Amino acid sequence: MDMQNRDRTTPDVHKPTQKHKSATGLDVQSVLNIQQNPMVLIDDQYRIIAANQAYQEAYGVQSDEVIGRCCHEISHHSPVPCHMRGEDCPHQAVFTTGEAHDVRHIHYDHQNHAEHVRIRGHAIKDQDGNTYLGEEIIRLPHQEEDITCGDMRMVGRSPAFMKCLHHIEMAGRTDASILLYGESGVGKELAASALHQFSARASEAFITVDCASLPETLFESEILGHERGAFTGCLGRKRGLYEMADRGTLFLDEVGELPLSMQAKLLRVLETGTFRRLGGSETLHADVRIIAATNRNLLEMAGQRQFREDLYYRLAAITIDLPPLRDRRDDIAGIAAVLLERIGKSWGGQWTLSKDAERCLFAYDFPGNVRELRNILQKAAALADGPVIQANHLNFTGVIPAFEAHAAASPGAVRDFGTTASVTRGGAQPDDLEALLRQYQGNRRRVAETLGVSERTVYRWLRRDA
Ligand SMILES: Nc1ncnc2c1ncn2[C@@H]1O[C@H](COP(=O)(O)OP(=O)(O)OP(=O)(O)O)[C@@H](O)[C@H]1O
């Protein structure tokens, strides 16, 4: 907290340490001091009752400067509790359920520097039965702030993203199957890789199966492998992707695109962990953790008999939703900066965004999410005649960014491409693919219908572009 700038009008509440001491017969301060991590005790009105020595040292404050102040004022510099700003609030959780609650937050120190922290909230009772929140704050080293997957970083600081990151971190530590939900380009593959990084399998293989582009005829040989001579033209023995993921993770991307016949075969393998290579007689076993991703509602598909319900439950022990970029606009500038850094490295240049360009991006709805942001930035960097990208370098291909739309009194207006877009049946990718995706809010099925091609073809075009 910025102690210099703190709100001096905050009511001077009772000094609860004394009250608490007499109720429990213990000196709360010295009990908290045993804890090596920063720790605070908070009452049901969000007021800090006590802060341990580690907390005072970490945040450069004296305990009498924080006692009686609201926790959200101190750690978030916010006049309202964090759940009112869309965050996962340990105070709300502990006082509602009485259960311990872990979250990942961004806190601000006394110099207003943001830092990533993990918070463990515990319910603590006094002798009169009153509940308090004991909050242990685990400060994350700088390098753990963004999750790194190879040379990629999962960037974001918005409440929605922090919530999602926390779920990824927690779920990653289990060995359960995980189903990632999210629109196209939202970062599902990156999240799958982060889940693997968090798991005990991190040093083993992470194998991706692109379910949308895997031809039905090759499913068995690709997933299960084959023996020499298993089919015409098959010269050697090959291990399948499932076997290659042994002791590691198999990521089933776009699992909703799997035809029913393949779903049955996949389920059989996942249920038993055993398989036979095509043309082989030996039963083999692999220990594989499954992560799957989709942008489709698999339960709805199950209702329409397009997806096997038993496979759904096998895949979705834990489900994690990845929020679309328009629901975490505060992340746009940070992600754009990282993407421009990446573009600069691979193209040998350096680009930044002008304030106007940043505002423009902030106002845009990004139906294609982070992938679309990356494409827009690539085009802008190519168009810019200097190191600064201006608003007029950003090409939104027919979609009016919300702030311009407000001026035009037609928010979110989209150019109507109708069904007359330059249709390509199966061959080269049509020029209007991106525009159609925007028009249909990333719904690839509708784009495919409009273009008269299969969803898989649309998917393949997108992958080629990625
Ligand atoms: N939080 C993020 N920070 C930085 N880059 C990101 C983030 N999320 C996604 N990206 C980048 O955006 C691009 C698209 O991400 P990714 O392929 O993981 O999306 P997806 O949801 O799997 O898409 P699809 O559904 O089309 O397969 C990638 O280049 C990825 O590195």
TrEMBL record:
Residues 154-382 form the Sigma-54 factor interaction domain. SMART domains: AAA. It holds the Pfam family PAS_4. InterPro entries: AAA+_ATPase, AAA_lid_NorR, Homeodomain-like_sf, P-loop_NTPase, PAS, PAS-like_dom_sf, PAS_4, Sigma_54_int. PANTHER family: TRANSCRIPTIONAL REGULATORY PROTEIN. This is Sigma 54-interacting transcriptional regulator. Residues 1-24 are annotated as: Disordered. It comes from the Bacteria. The lineage of its organism: Bacteria, Pseudomonadati, Pseudomonadota, Acidithiobacillia, Acidithiobacillales. It comes from Acidithiobacillus concretivorus.
